[in-house]
Amino acid sequence: MLDEIEGTVLGHRDGHGFVTRADGQPDIYLPPNEMRAVLHKDRVKVRIVRSDRKGRPEGRVLEIIERTSKTIIGRLLQESGIWIVVPEDKCYGQDVLIPKAATGLAKTGQVVVVELTEPPSLYGQPVGRIKEVLGEVDDPGMEIEIAVRKYSVPHEFSDACIALARTLPDQVRPQDKKHRVDLTDVPLVTIDGEDARDFDDAVYCEPVKIGKGKTAVEGWRLLVAIADVSHYVENGSAIDIDAYERATSVYFPRRVIPMLPEKLSNGLCSLNPEVERLCMVCDMMVSADGEVTAYQFYPAVMWSHARFTYTEVAAILANTRGPEALKRQERVPDLINLHDVYRALLQARARRGAVDFETVETQIVCDESGRIEKIIPRTRNDAHKIVEEAMLAANVCSADFIAQSKHAGLFRVHEGPTPEKKEILRNYLKVTGVGLSISDNPSPGEFQAIANATKDRPDAQQIHSMLLRSMQQAIYTPVNEGHFGLAFDAYTHFTSPIRRYPDLLVHRVIKAILAKTKYQLPVLPLPGEAHAKLSRRLEKGLAARVAEPGQKPKKLSIDTQAWQAAGLHCSANERRADEASRDVEAWLKCKYMREHLGEEYWGVVSSVTSFGIFVTLDAMYVEGLVHITELGGDYFKFDEMRQELRGERTGMRYAIGTRLQVQVSRVDLDGRRIDFRLIHEGEGTVSRGGKDKELSRAAGSRDATAGESASATGKRSSRKISEPDARSPKTASKSKSTSKDPGRKPRRRS
Fold first, then answer.
1. Which end of the chain is more exposed for a tag (fewer CB within 10 A), N or C?
2. Burial class (CB in 10 A: 0-12, 13-18, 19+), 177
3. How many angstroms separate the CA atoms of 570 and 679, rounded?
4. Whole-angstrom Cα distance, residue 646 to residue 689?
């Protein structure tokens, strides 16, 4: 009897689909006829019946175990007297039929939320009723309304949460200060972006002597004070339940979906200037060589003596007698001390060999109606780096404190590259002539050495991108396996409890350790689908993470399973927030580029696939596809090792880093796609002839959808410690210039 395999359906815009297996084996291809009775995100049981022409296992649906509980967002249209909703998410390959009586107050062309009343079948489309009318597609902010529902981002607090938030005080009360260190006389300050509204960290530094007598050495006392959210958000309370469900704040251009109600996030917990606030403090002694020689944690009450912006601090440090410095004379010495300790911590970072790549990050600037005015590179100055290094130091101390105390908690774990990714990276570095490679058991220092050696090359940006994408994604887990990219043996997130639930949990654990008690995770209710997913993932081998090589996975204790489930939930919701943010950015960029149809720009090839090349425009930082049909009448083969398309007849090569002139030819707002037409090839960047020397500026590939970037206006990206992405490069294949587009944008399952 052939194996019956369970998995989740992932639809594709072209009508076919895939079943992702819980056991980590390759996905199973579902042809269009098998997708007629199922929907994106349905849980099914399939049997592999053959391999398709690409060698992928092809399946037949035997049983639909669980229908997706998600609603569908789309536009209401009327065709030949029949009402239908065309899903906004093209992974849903079928339109939804809407009976006339179920259209409610919706009008044709409006964006609506549909609740399915009848699932699809082999011979019938899904049927639904309109549950909510969002408005017209061009309404300001509509892209965000769509995204929060498309990705099931919780965007409304429960009545119980709102009611409980109203009972909280507006300011720190005398009873709240009991058993806390009074730091109101210490000139702690906050340093954030101009548009920041929640301030969850404050810093202060002063020079000190470390040690006693003749052995004393120069150093610094560094204080990192973090908003004490756990004092107000009680374990298992209504606010806690909502915060856990969200797990993170979600940042969009011009709007934030906060993890906590505004009374907490922008008021009572925010370290606003010149008001008393409760905080948890990491008090560190830092030596001249940047090593933290001692630390302690304690609850305190503080008074922020100033609210600085990154731009302001950078200006003061650049000219301590300039106009910005004159306005803040009392605080200038403290900022100089912070700069000094930062440089020491930076030296320690270099000695550790931590990965520190310089990548371009963009910021979307919108007008009052939400329309993009411009897209600009976001520059990181010394002020950003000062805060980043201080937060890193506090996060490491919190991880060490939890590990030394042998208390369960959530670590931020980032593992090194997989064997497959290592091999791909080695081949790539070889063919691009870097002259350096990585060992079988690479250290972060090896990656940083390659980055340093290539920083002056014209293709440095692409090489650094490839280095990043050879690494895995960071996750939250109770099993500490260190942080590869930052070169730390143990690392947590402690510094942002206003916007990240794992940080809130770390605060609770630290308080429990200080009180010599044990923190117990609350039993927090989750939607049935989320519970089911967590249970399945725990059952399918998460215990293997704590197993010794060659041994059977250890059985996890109930307590460890609870922490593991919390880590999975927070990690998944972090990915969800990123996807929703990217989706909105892509929509905005597509809408922006519709105004530039027919215009010509220079750009650089940023990704290569078997069906074309993606080009990022120099002036706009927007990415679009030059389809393989635009590259001429040759037969192009995708070379995975070199990350290039090569013409078999002409020898023409298009690789990452190639400079091209393109014309904006088409924009698909619904599909989040921008198409370019090739106009001109940049001098010296496109090589002809198989025996020519490598002239193309090759670099790493990535899964980049139209308009996708690392930007998110309002997202405090400088605070979020950069942690590598784990997107797999494409597999090699051939494509004729006359072939159809197999997926248009590079997706893992195209």
1. N
2. middle
3. 46
4. 10
Question: What is the distance between the alpha carbons of residues 416 and 18, in angstroms, rounded to a whole number?
Answer: 28
The tokens of 99 are what? 């009976």
| Those residues with Cβ within 8 angstroms of residue 52's Cβ, 6 or more apart along the chain or in another chain | 29, 31, 58
Q: Are 160 and 148 in contact (CB under 8 A)?
A: no
Helix (H) or strand (E) segment spanning residue 51: strand 43-51
Cβ atoms of 396 and 293 within 8 Å: the answer is: no
Q: Contact 538/561 with Cβ under 8 angstroms? A: yes
Which helix (DSSP H) or strand (DSSP E) does residue 43 occupy? strand 43-51
Q: Which of 447, 421, 473, 493 is nearest to 355 (CA)?
A: 447
| DSSP designation for 265 | I
How confident is the model over 681-689, as a mean pLDDT? 46
Judge whether 310 and 425 are in contact, CB under 8 Å: no
Rounded Cα–Cα distance for residues 289 and 141 (Å)? 49
DSSP 452: H
Type of residue at 681: E
> What pLDDT, on a 0 to 100 scale, did the predictor assign at position 457?
82
Q: What is the DSSP secondary structure assignment for residue 729, as one 8-state letter?
A: P
Both tokens assigned to 382:
């010394």
Conformational region of residue 340, where left means phi above 0, alpha means psi within -120 to 50, and beta covers everything else:
alpha
| Calpha distance 170→155 (Å, rounded) | 24
How far from chain centre, in Å, is Cα 633? 39
pLDDT at 46: 92
| Amino acid type, 373 | E
For the chain, the distance separating the N- and C-terminal CA atoms, rounded to the nearest angstrom, is 30
Taking alpha carbons only, the member of 657, 624, 629, 660 closest to residue 643 is 657
Radius of gyration of the chain (CA): 27
Q: Could you identify the residue written with the tokens 């008074």?
A: 303
Q: What's the CA gap between 495 and 391, in Å, rounded? A: 6
Nearest CA to 561 out of 498, 436, 477 is that of 477
SS3 for 389? helix
Distance from C-alpha of 30 to C-alpha of 50, rounded to nearest angstrom: 11
Task: Using pLDDT thresholds of 50, 70 and 90, give the confidence band for residue 714.
Answer: very low
What is the rounded average pLDDT of the residues 460-477? Answer: 84
Separation between Cα atoms, residue 132 and residue 111, nearest integer Å: 9
**In b/e form, how buried is each residue of 113-131, taking b as 16+ CB within 10 angstroms?**
bbebeebbeeeeebbbbbe
DSSP assignment letter at 239: H
Question: Amino acid identity, residue 370?
Answer: G
Contact status, residue 391 vs residue 486, Cβ threshold 8 Å: no
Going along the chain from its start, the domains and CATH numbers come out as: 4-66 (2.40.50.140), 72-137 (2.40.50.700), 159-361 (no CATH), 411-577 (no CATH), 588-736 (2.40.50.140)
pLDDT confidence of residue 740: 35
Amino acid found at 482: G
H helix and E strand count, the chain: 14, 32
> What is the pTM (predicted TM-score) of this model?
0.84
Cβ neighbours for 554, distance < 8 A, ≥ 6 positions apart: 543, 546, 547
**Residue that is written with structure tokens 């731009």 in the block:** 311
Give Cβ neighbours of residue 385 (< 8 Å, ≥ 6 apart): 342, 346
Q: Provide the residue count of the chain.
A: 750
549 falls in which pLDDT band (50, 70, 90)?
low
**What pLDDT digit, counting tens, does each position of 576-601 carry?**
999 999 999 999 999 999 999 999 99
